[in-house]
Amino acid sequence: MTSAAVEEGSLEEQQKTDEKIHNQPIFYINEINGSAKCQNSAAEGNGTKIHLTTTNDVGQNAVDCSPKGRSATICGGDSHPQSQFTIARTKFAELIRMRAPKSFRTARKGSSTMDDPEMFGSSANSQPEKDGFGWITGVLIRCILCIFGATLFLRMSWIAGQAGLILGGVVVLLSFLVVVVTAISMSAIATNGEVKNGGCYYLISRSLGPEFGGSIGLILYIANTVNASMNCVGLAEAIVRLLKQDYGFHLTDGGINDVRIYATCTCLFLQAIIFIGTEFENKTQLALMGTIWICIISHFVGTLLPLSDIQRRRGVVGFSFGVLLDNLWPDFRADNTFITMFGVYFPAMTGIMAGANMSGDLKDPSKSIPRGTFWAIAITTLTYLWCMVITALTTVRDATGFSEPELHPTTHRYTVPSCRANDTCRFGLANDYDVMTLQGAWSPLITVGIFSTTLSSASGCLIGAPRILQALCADKMFPYMHPFAKGYRKTNDPFRAYFLTLLIAISAIMIGELNSIADLISNFFLAAFAITNFACFDASAAKSPGFRPGFRFYNKWLSLFGSALCVLIMFVLHWPTSLVTFFVFIVLFVFIKHNKSHINWGTSTEANRYRRALNSLLKISRTEDHVKNYRPQLLVLSGNPVARQALVDFAYCISNGRSLLLCGHIVPHCSSVQATALIRTLNNQFTDWLYEQHIKGFYSAVAHQSLRAGVQGLLQTVGLGKMQPNILLIGYNSHWLTQCEVSSTDNDNNSSGPHWYKEYMGVIADAFEANMAVCVFRNENDGLDHSALLSKEDQLFVRLPDLLHSDRNSSLTDDLNRGVSAKKVRPKAKAQQNSVLPTCSPSRAELSLPTLMDRLPSVTAVFPSGTNGNGSMEGMNGTAKGSRRVSSGAYLRKYDHFRTAGRPSMSAKFRTQIKGGFVDVWWLYDDGGLVLLLSHLLREHNTYLPNAKLRIFTICSKLNPDDVHQKLVEMLKKFRIHFASVHVISEDYDEGKLYQETIEEYQELMNTLNPAGTTGQAISQEIIDKTQSKTMRYLRQRELLLEFSSASTVVLISMPFATANIVLSPVYGMWLELLSRDMPPMLFVRGNRTSVITHTS
């Protein structure tokens, strides 16, 4: 065959292949602007093709790509073979990951449908199924073995003899009620999401929070450790009695010291097995499980066999209805009571948490924990009741050991032996712990059962307790304990925690007496059960959408009942120990809450806090305002609150954490998606800063190119319900005079003044129109903007993503589209490139980075457009000092608080308490009493002027000063305003009484505003004539202020009253300047004529 024929055949084959491919759906992934674009046509190329083999050529498939390029869904068309479809969609997901940006590929798991196994199935790279124990080997067997402790063979017959069958059954059923309710609550929490290592501690901490989980987790760890000691002591008691009675052997005294030695050796032996590994330990548990059930069967079989003489002499008489009647009611000996019986039995049932403690080693904890726990409770409770009933049916309460019990010929009931009168009987249900051993088909086998139960229970506690400690240390709940979080091997065995647990267990063994340890264990576990039940109740009562447990057979009121029942039983059992337990819990709770307040695991505590806040807002929204409940709710136009810390601190002296404080910030940029993302980031940063400064307030920002329009937006939208600001606090514009100067080149001849002054004063006028109270604060001549004092060492930097329109792959925009704010981390710096200042357009609004990024770190005015260090405001088009062209990936500075050492005095001025200060109030107008209320709040004990002396000044021109003084004093007493003195000044405001210096200051201001020889005038002659009388009045008030209040600590004065056109005129700024120049910090106050104080009760 010729080469041409071969080539022609190849071409024909290629055409057929292309045609076949063309008829199948072909998906292209084109990377355009960082997003995946899907095509269903083979005509458009440059993409990666993914072919899905269909069952027929008619069916069509399409790929629906999300607009954000974050996920893709294969939809439409006929059905495909499952294997081919799974492979195809898996390749599709892998290719999208491969082509996606790095930030997308490394995104948090679950943020995209690409990581959803239900969406794309499994692949070769998918994680293998988790290895672990099932519900039988991991939970059921462990719980049964932990519940079947020394109590089963050594105490159940004794409880039947002491409490009788009725009360003994009540003890068992009451314990059953407690553990079932607790298991229900634990199952509800365990099925509400993935459960990790830590067991009950993990469930409580992720439900109620770290303070609850950490506190009860440590208590639970100690309880499990001491429970292991209790079982080792039980085993040691059995060994000592066995050796002493049968062989007459003892190591030391044949008593408590021998028990300590044997128990310690047992603990060391079990710990050695655990060190080998959990797999080996689990096989050991299976062997012990079989041994225990053989022993239980052996006991029942033994009761059916003929009795020996030893058995009869020791009180075993076989099944008898008369014996049952004798053992039906209680007959307590010594100091034993029902509470004592419960305290002895209940620790056995605390083993229900053995399976939960192994949550990190389970294959599916959410399913295994409920199923295994409930079955274990049912099986063990029935077994305990069975053993109690069998012993009560076959053994008398008291026996001498020398003679068989005597049967009365008429009543057919056994008589009470003579040793009962002086409590010298050694055998029988009420006296002998080894009744079940005596009844067994083969006594040594029951002894083996005792060994097995104690070994299994102790082993479960010794392997579960260290894992609780490991989880506690992994979460760094307590300082200096993180080394115990380290795990070894693939099973993450906490070897270091093993050693610590072993030391604590041996220390508890030194107590030596089983019943004493049981009382302590009961108290600890009841506390853990109470918190577990309360966790379920709290999570359910919070009504959070996130609480959706798979286990639906729970009830919040049942959980609350269980929690209350556990607390009640705690105090009934042993109230001194309960008080100690609660004291330890509270100490740990406060410690963790103080050190781990930043942890947020989405707990029910947060859900309840939200619910309470929402309900409170709804309630007060329907409540009419009353003057007695008035609170000053401040909207502080602080701009960057770090740069104006003095203003924020002064405002906080008024709100003091008892009323609303909002720091308003007008970001000088047009509204856009990027601006919204930036404001969100700023909100996170400044909220953190307010928290670090211990200021209970909020931060709210609006993006707008106009200060006045931005403030209008804040006034209209800020707040929620009744939690809305009623006072606007703004810093004094120190450079108003410079802004109002009219140069020869200025074409603005408007009598209301130039643009920037109108913007500032327009904010005040708008607040008046909105019926809000207004306060203007002037901090002497120092100003309020201290951004120039902030050095680079005082600033923390946060990397902000690119916001330039030239970089369309903005990660900030992507984060916004995903609903995730920008991360507060500083990655490695990227290569920088200069950018051009973008402009706003109706189609696409862009952020002005040179204005934004360079000015925000040193925002100087309420509207951050310049840096002058005195809180002044420059033109919007002006450039901040030291500004530079912003590069791609610019840094936004996040301010930390000022350092304690070398803190500038002016920035901390209103944080340092002043003793013996003076607060002067110049009450010139009726404003509803706001100026009096603010003066009272400024003198509270936790402000910067605690217990300062209050001096009240007022001016009257026509009334009798003595009458005014008397009425004012009476009114202040009715208002309960504590004052030092009241001064009534009679003044006619005659221009001839003004000092020459005052007149010269006024003329200097007028010459600056209306310079001679210029065509433009800042203040028109009409305004000057109209306000002449008021100007003279304020000039005289300035002289009085300098005379009486120049040495005061702070001055509060009624703000000059004027119409809107006067407020917008520079003459109003001149009034404020004249009243506050060369004065202490001064607060101009104007209420909205709504009463804020009252004399009624």
Automatic annotation (TrEMBL):
Q: Please provide the record's keywords in A-Z order.
A: ATP-binding, Cell membrane, Chloride, Disulfide bond, Glycoprotein, Ion transport, Membrane, Nucleotide-binding, Phosphoprotein, Sodium, Sodium transport, Symport, Transmembrane, Transmembrane helix, Transport, Ubl conjugation
Q: Where is this region: Disordered?
A: 106-125, 810-835
Q: Name one GO molecular function term.
A: sodium:chloride symporter activity
Compartments annotated for it: namely:
Apical cell membrane
Q: Where are the transmembrane segments?
A: 132-154, 166-189, 261-280, 286-305, 338-360, 372-393, 495-514, 520-541, 553-573
Q: Which Gene3D superfamilies match?
A: Amino acid/polyamine transporter I
Summarizing the function annotation, the protein's role is: Electroneutral sodium and chloride ion cotransporter, which acts as a key mediator of sodium and chloride reabsorption in kidney distal convoluted tubules. Also acts as a receptor for the pro-inflammatory cytokine IL18, thereby contributing to IL18-induced cytokine production, including IFNG, IL6, IL18 and CCL2. May act either independently of IL18R1, or in a complex with IL18R1.
Q: Any idea what this protein is called? A: Solute carrier family 12 member 3
The taxonomy runs: Eukaryota, Metazoa, Ecdysozoa, Nematoda, Chromadorea
